[in-house]
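DM from R.C. (forwarded with permission)

"hey, sorry to bug you on a friday — could you get me a structure for this? deadline for the figure draft is monday and I only need the backbone to look sensible"
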Amino acid sequence: MLDPEHQPLKPYLLFHPRFILKVEDEEFSQQFPEPLLDTDVFNNPSFAIDIHCRRFDLVNVAKRRAVYAWWNLPGIRRNKIVYVDYEFGMPEQLTFDQARAVFVEYVCAHRWCSNSHESPEQFRARNEKYSSMAELIEPVSLKGKLPRVSRKKL
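My reply, with the result:
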């Protein structure tokens, strides 16, 4: 069982060098192709910032179970999709201004503001208007691109 003290409260933003993902539920945000867990994708420094402006370093990503669906059967899909659990370290409390700055700078540094069809200046100005993490997190779905794995050879 994961220690609730080491878990961000949902919704939270998961920061990875390839993407920022809003985690609201366990359906989409915690499903990945199983072969992805065998790569070093999650060995990159990653962290989360939750609704209470707490920053958690990502320690591990562990496979929980396969997604039970007809489209995830071996004859239909080559790379099985699995649910994962994110394991985090101790939280560090940030102010809202610090959390917002981390988000804005991360997005602008990776040039992901074009995902929302904005220039970096427009993105900064829009996010400057938000006064809480709930407002900041609400419009985010995905910035960047989720990692992919090559198909297994038959």
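R.C.: lifesaver. The mean pLDDT is 84.
me: no worries. The longest helix spans residues 96-109.
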